[in-house]
Amino acid sequence: MSKQVIIIGAGPGGLASAMLLAAAGVKVKVIERLPHVGGRTSTIEAQGYKFDLGPTFFLYPRVLEEIFNAAGRRMKEEIEMIRLDPQYRIQFGAGGKIDATADPVRMEKQIASIAPEDAAGFRKFMAENRTKLDKFAPCLETPFLGWQDVVNLRLLKLLPGLHPTESVDTYLKRFFKDERVRLAFCFQSKYLGMSPFRCPSLFSILSFLEYEYGVWHPVGGCGAVSGAMARVAGEMGVEICLNEPVEEMVFAGRKAVGVRTATGIHRADAVIVNADFARAMERLVPDNLRRRWTDRKLAKKKFSCSTFMMYLGVEGEFNLPHHTIHIANDYVKNLDDIENKHVLSEDPSYYVQNACVTDPTLAPKGHSALYVLSPVTHQHPNVDWNQERGRFRELLHRQMAKAGYGNLEGRVRYERIITPAEWDTSYEIHKGATFNLAHSLDQLLHLRPRNRFEDLDSVYLVGGGTHPGSGLPVIYESARITSRLLLEDLGVPHDADKLTPRSAQLSTHAAEPQTVN
């Protein structure tokens, strides 16, 4: 009889796990509380407009390609992706802009336009981070189930070259003198919900990945990727139950034996949790069954920032970049407001996606679907979103005019706003911290909740709250790590090669195709 696995949550990690386990012959049931798949990687559809709820672009698609291959499919036949060039525009409140491109000659010219002395640093940065990623890849692709995995000889030899105690900004001073140029290569720490002045330097690989392997737009948005994964999983025999919140996990002693929903108890040999980690622990697992991750200990952990979101269906089109990142004039103060003071900045940074310039399927003809994100504090008593929602919305409209998006008010035909309070209550994200647990050194590797969850038996984790961390490529990698562990623990025969990353390919230069091959 085949083994039965239940996955709580149909986010990207849960869907990837479902595909991998089904390919190994496991009977998989995915139980999702929302009426659609994808979690934060889903689509908002209204009045002919389509918006990604959360992630809006795709980095390093090779991980997902390998997951589709393991499932006997080819990703390019399921999902169309377009590589963006320029990747995005970075404009600085302090003056100047960079249209980021993977073409080294053009990128050097972009850097030279605001800081001539820093242009030569680009190729040096790329060369060093190419080596860094080769060294660091094993840390992203293997489980860390205890301190023994951290102190193995191979990892200890790697640490000095990874500069683990430096911040990303400090590390970048090796290559770039101008603060604006450094910000262009470290704002990506916000993908982890962290300040570049605190984020460990090993995460400089995030910007490297963009230039080496591209920034991609999936046609239909990132939510279309989740839809394709769910479709393939269903064709492989995975049962996906929507509109069915899990009320509790069912245990025999400390061993999970299933979950309870309004329809009854669903039995399983193992349970994978793809829900927000902290919220899942609070809601689904009795505190007395937990050891390392009790409510009291969770309250002491560091959580990422949150985001204020605006989804705007606008009459008219904009001859502006697909992605624009506006960095506040005083970025240090902006980050201090978010991470330490927990107040709203009067000069906030923000991001605008104008995806219709690449993908006209996202809005009616002659219209645009604008996605606006501003990093803000996670839920905190200092900010009452019932009072601040309207004021901050108006502030962002004024800010957007600096990027060329002026006079929007009379042209907006659809608007939706999501605040940290709504991330918390409507989307069940602890503190509204959209990037999960912070990625500080004391919450990485074995110090993060582990893929084979250490507090309970037959419970596994996938998603941004476990190792390796947040961001779609590493969330997919968490699914691959977790699936390997689970199959081994259940004694399910499987092709280990299909679940093993092709790490040797990481050092190969990416081609420059317009669609993924």
Please tag this protein with its features.
alpha/beta; 20 strands; 3 domains; seven-stranded mixed beta sheet; FAD/NAD(P)-binding domain; 517 residues; five-stranded parallel beta sheet
Account of the protein in words:
By secondary structure, the chain is an alpha/beta fold. The chain folds into 3 domains: 224 residues, 3-Layer(bba) Sandwich (FAD/NAD(P)-binding domain); 129 residues, no CATH class; 126 residues, Guanine Nucleotide Dissociation Inhibitor, domain 2, CATH 3.30.519. Helices cover 32% and strands 19% of the residues. It has 17 helices and 20 strands. The strands form 5 sheets. It has a 7-stranded mixed sheet. A 5-stranded parallel sheet has the order 10-2-1-14-20, covered by helices on one side. α5 runs antiparallel to α7 and α5 crosses α10. It is globular, with a radius of gyration of 22 Å. The two termini are 38 Å apart.
